[in-house]
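TODO from last week: model Pyrroline-5-carboxylate reductase.
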Amino acid sequence: MTDALPHIAILGAGSMGGAILQGLVASGLAPRVTVTNRTREKAQALAELGGVTSIALEEAQGGNMDAAAAADVVLIGVKPAMVPDLLREIAPALRPGAIVVSLAAGVTIATFEAILPAGTPVLRSMPNTPAVVGKAVTGLAPGTAVTPAQTAVVRRLFETCGAVIEVPESQIDPLSTISGSGPAYVFLLIEELTKAAVGKGFSEADARLMAEQTFIGAAALLAASGEDPAELRRRVTSPKGTTERAIAVLQAARLDVVFESATDAALARARELAAGA
């Protein structure tokens, strides 16, 4: 049996922090997790999860410090603009050797290391929202004071929610344009395929079922087969058949250029955010 993870705190268990919390709880590997949220309502919803201590900051103003002081791994899940103030708040309370993990887009490891006590191990992460169903892709970049053993602990934490890719910090923003924003690209494609089905006379319910289950089934086939997606596409595309005609239209639309341009735009925005724009 895999060893349990150490005590974890998630400061700001919003959409992403909450998704990671769900994965941790479902894994059974995190017997002690403390989370903070601003409101009583959000805190109460998370308090029902097994092994979770949920703190409402409107009721306990020192909740972030208390949570950080009790934890071996502290995840920072607040909005990027709120990160520096939160780090200054918890810095005096951190245990020696406690690992701090950023979930905040655009906030550099250097920012964390400049505010936290010297030698604090800091890692920057970039998970995506499928964490809530255990299917995330998380990019993980270690800071200057992190040991391989500490990276391994944080990797195990995120593996409760899906796959983990270790990258240098310089690759975190490019990774965010693929896996971070990627679910939105897939949902957009499903939206448009659903509209096409409705336009061909199907009800909204049937159109959604066809589009959604086709994506879900195709992804499951890809995962189960281990084949290259291009090979699976070729198998569906019979010579001179209907799929070949449709693929020709999609290729003529230069989807390669569209996706390159879209991810370039996302990367430019990530760099603007990092610069405070």
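Done. The longest strand covers residues 136-142.
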